[in-house]
Amino acid sequence: MMMMVTIVSLRVGGQDGLPVTSDDRVIANTRSGQLKITSLTQYDVGKYLCIASNTVGRMTAERIINVHSRHIIQFSLHVCL
User: What is the Cα–Cα distance from 13 to 32, expressed in whole angstroms?
Assistant: First the structure.
């Protein structure tokens, strides 16, 4: 049985960090819980946090992004309860 999940927030910098905002390289979709970053740069380095909740409870997923080269990388973060 699949349950509906509400993505409460996508943040950079952990729990106390800033909300992720979309631009021409970053797609932050709180509806699907998906975060896509293309053409990563040193400014994208950090801890990314997704907080999701529904009637059953709350869940978080955290990923740390490091950039070590100039290659183009895509990163996705999905959360499901």
Answer: 21
Which two three-digit tokens encode residue 2?
């699949």
Whole-prediction pTM: 0.67
Q: Return the CATH number at 50.
A: 2.60.40.10
Q: What's at 20, amino acid-wise?
A: V
Longest dimension (CA), the chain: 43
Can you read off the two tokens belonging to residue 81? 């309860």
The stretch 7-26 carries a mean pLDDT of 80
Provide the domain limits for residue 41. Answer: 6-65
The CA–CA distances, whole Å, from 57 to 52, 53, 61, 69, 76 equal 9, 6, 14, 39, 23
